Amino acid sequence: MGIQERKERERERRRQQIIVAAKRVFSDKGFNKSTMEDIAQEAELSPGTLYLYFKNKEELYASLSLRILQYLLISLDHVGTQEDQSPEAKLDAMIRAMYDVYEFDPLIIINMFHLQSSETLKNLSSEFLSEIEILSKKAISAMAAIFQEGTEKGVFIDKHPVALADVFWSIFSGVVLWEASKKTFNPEKDFLKITLEAAFDIFKRGLIIHRD
């Protein structure tokens, strides 16, 4: 292994160390109360070292979103490439993928939805914004391709595939955020799964053309 490659690996290792520490701090204190100093202490690094990798805590917050978006895109691409499956089967697989993405890391997915609907985006570098935009567009496009296939085969209603993808994603994000907010008041109650099941069932019933 060359010196340059060793340096790159060490840099990536240190970056992941910071991200893991940030996740713990955000989980314990929440985004607003967390500071770069808190994260540096958790990572056992100096605050100055953190700024070599991330411009601010907003970029650290965003880095968690990039991870979940990458995982989501891999899952959707896998569903879309199953040529032997019917549109209904692909829709069911896409719904299962949403559950998998949430279970992969609930905190990260909630953070991502908060990030995309807040002023935090304005504090990100153009590089981070570009990465989030590209991954988000790819994910929506992967969903839209599945809806388009179903429409072309006469299985799904004739609506714009991107609009259907947006509605599908909005259902998922809306339920996740709503149920997360409810848990703030009553941590013992968790209706996420049954609420998502109801929402996706209603969506599916409205999407599929039923012929007598």
Note down, in words, how this protein is organized:
It is a single chain. The chain is mainly α and 212 residues long. It folds into two domains: 1-54, Orthogonal Bundle (Arc Repressor Mutant, subunit A); 58-207, Tetracycline Repressor, domain 2 (Orthogonal Bundle). Helices cover 77% and strands 0% of the residues. The protein has helices at residues 3-29, 36-43, 47-53, 57-80, 87-104, 106-116, 126-152, 161-185, 192-207. α1 (3-29) packs across α4 and α8 (161-185) runs antiparallel to α9. The chain is globular, with a radius of gyration of 20 Å. The model has no long low-confidence stretch (mean pLDDT 88).
Summarize the structure.
The protein has 212 residues and is mostly helical. 77% of the residues lie in helices and 0% in strands. It has 9 helices and no strands.
SSE topology:
Layout: H1 3-29, H2 36-43, H3 47-53, H4 57-80, H5 87-104, H6 106-116, H7 126-152, H8 161-185, H9 192-207
Binned, the helix content reads: over 70%
CATH architecture annotation of the largest domain: Orthogonal Bundle
- State the end-to-end distance: 66 Å
Order of helices and strands: HHHHHHHHH
Main traits of this protein?
mainly alpha; 77% helix; Arc Repressor Mutant, subunit A; 212 residues; 2 domains; 9 helices; 0% strand; Tetracycline Repressor, domain 2
